[in-house]
Amino acid sequence: MTSAPASPPVPASRPAPTTLGELRAGGHVLKPVKAEVRDNLLARLAAGETAFPGIVGFDDTVLPQVERALLAGHDLVLLGERGQGKTRLIRTLVGLLDEWTPVLAGSELNEHPYAPISPWGHRQVADHGDATPVAWRHRSDRYGEKLATPDTSVGDLIGDVDPIKVAEGRTLGDPETVHYGLVPRTNRGIFSVNELPDLAERIQVSLLNVLEERDIQVRGYTLRLPLDLLLVASANPEDYTNRGRIITPLKDRFGAEVRTHYPLELADEVRLVRQEAQLDWPGTKVVVPDHLLQVVARYTRLVRESPQVDQRSGVSARFAVAAAETVAASAVRRAAITGEAQAVARVCDLPSVVEASRGKVEFEAAEEGRELEVLHHLLRRATADAFRALLAGTDLSGLQGRFEEGATVETGDLVPAGELLGRLGTVPGLGALLGRLGVEQESPGLAAAALEFALEGLHLNRRLAKDEVAGRTVYGGR
Questions:
Q1: Which has more confidence, 427 or 377?
Q2: Structural contact between residues 374 and 279, judged by C-beta atoms closer than 8 angstroms
Q3: Same domain (yes/no): 171, 227
């Protein structure tokens, strides 16, 4: 389930005018939401600044399309499989609003003092004139979000008659008996509908006027409320969800449809995992070396491309994030049990991701019962690919020579780094190995992680034998 982001702390400094007269005297200019977004986006583009912070892998594909849609003043739909960052991208749009905007103090609809839209707002300005109270709203409070579910009602989105207001003595013909829904309450802001096809078609109809005529209708009332907002929606491909569709008139009213995708480059996949995974735990020193993150990223991509996996469902970026966090947790568990000072993830921690991630993947029906076998195979392939990419051409003869006369080395997820290094002894070329893996400050944990990665790579390339028994792994000569 997707929830709205928490509002950041609002700065103490805000614009000074507190009345309509002061606002006019200060030269404030009314600017529609889409004009705000356009102007701020153009300023960022001209300055070479990032317009969508935290978005990885879309620079040359998705983001230019989004920029064009925003510059054109279009409402838009982001269409793509699960876990492609659609909601994350939508939430960054808030940063393109002006930091502060004036509103009529007490307005349910965030009405601009220059242009009230409700009967209440018009009455406030008529009664108080230049003394009409003005409040200031931060851009973090100008974002609304609704996860579409089949039980979402028109009242949730648009509004409904409030029986309490009727009981207070107002007549049913009075527009002020209406309790406004999420969309009008986000007036002069950005509203997002996640998983739009999940809305019942009759509910989608209620958004038609919002997108085109910019007014709303509630139980026979025709409220001419010229809403000022940017409407953005996300959706999964219809051929996968089968839970509904975006009705044609609604699709026609969105100005742009932008297709998202999973990271195209391995480097972007790794960067995304590093950015999103919770690998820095308070009070616990844990290190996940870059070569293991590359294995996780390659594993994710292989699962995503596997013919045994249902390609319509996709393999979310959350799959890779959860895998990296599981690897880190395995290292922390080992350190807690063995008393290691620093938890460093190693190859022996990788198999833990298979059981943990099985539920995140939907397999083809023919693969029923073989899910773990398929995932373990793909993990071995990912490890072998990372070994070849990172250590191709590295002289590992010194390490391999340790096993030429029948010696063996035992490791496992509960074998501490110091014990593994002691079993291997002095390894010629260790410095070169660490250098190829980008290890700048040598420590027992990082040395053990590098050596275990090399051992596994040699085994996967049929240069060492390997036996696994009861959670223990024994490497030896062939």
A1: 377
A2: no
A3: yes
